[in-house]
Amino acid sequence: MDTSILVEKAKKIKLLAFDVDGVMTDGSVTYDENGVEYKTFNVKDGHGIVRMNKSGFITAVITARNNGTVAHRAKNLNITEIHQGCMVKLPVLEELLKKYNLTFENVSYMGDDLPDIPILEKVGLACCPNDAVEEVKDICGFVSSKYGGRGAVRELCDFILSAQNIEKDYVVAEGQRS
User: Fold this and answer.
1) Do 90 and 66 meet the contact criterion of CB atoms below 8 Å apart?
2) What fold characterizes domain 3-24+44-162?
3) Which residues, other chains included, contact 147 with Cβ-Cβ below 8 Å and sequence gap of 6+?
4) Could you tell me which of 61, 119, 117, 112 has the C-alpha nearest to residue 90?
5) pLDDT digit of tens for each residue in the chain (178 aa)?
6) What is the 3-class SS of the chain, one letter each residue?
């Protein structure tokens, strides 16, 4: 998609929503001998989300899996909305639109796999990491140059902030971690 069209779409964004596995992480799932699941997150991606929050954006996680690590990470980043265990994600986003009086045009969603397509087909700025499945990449206007869990979220955050002429803030808010 033409960069100028993407910039125009990015100017309208007020809510950024993300899948977790394959977007905020590299998609790997690690278990210990007790079956406890572990995920690894990228601090640069985290700082991007922190900057979005500090700039007044609504941030959301909508994921099919249910994991305490995700809840902990979301709390550290002060993510506005966390929705886990969502096998069908679109109704969750529709409820967020009602809650915040927004339209799909005001939403950026980053997903990487087939369950994300129903949302990606509706939002104003459909996004994915570079290692998303081809069916997702085909419908996304913003395809990051980075892989999931390796800076794709940060690249999207920086793009939207730049499109909206929001200056970089080099200080993390007290109590927030990236």
Assistant:
1) no
2) Rossmann fold (3.40.50)
3) 26, 129, 130, 131
4) 119
5) 688 999 999 999 999 999 999 999 999 989 999 988 889 999 999 999 999 999 999 999 999 988 888 999 999 999 999 999 999 999 999 999 999 999 999 999 999 999 999 999 999 999 999 999 999 999 999 999 999 999 999 999 999 999 999 986 655 554 555 5
6) CCHHHHHHHHCCCCEEEECCCCCCCCCCCEECCCCCEECCCCHHHHHHHHHHHHCCCEEEEECCCCCHHHHHHHHHCCCCEEECCCCCCHHHHHHHHHHHCCCHHHEEEECCCHHHHHHHCCCCEEEECCCCCHHHHHHCCEECCCCCCCCHHHHHHHHHHHHCCCCCCCCCCCCCCC
Domain boundary assignment for the chain: 3-24+44-162
**Strand 81-83 with 107-110, pairing:** unpaired
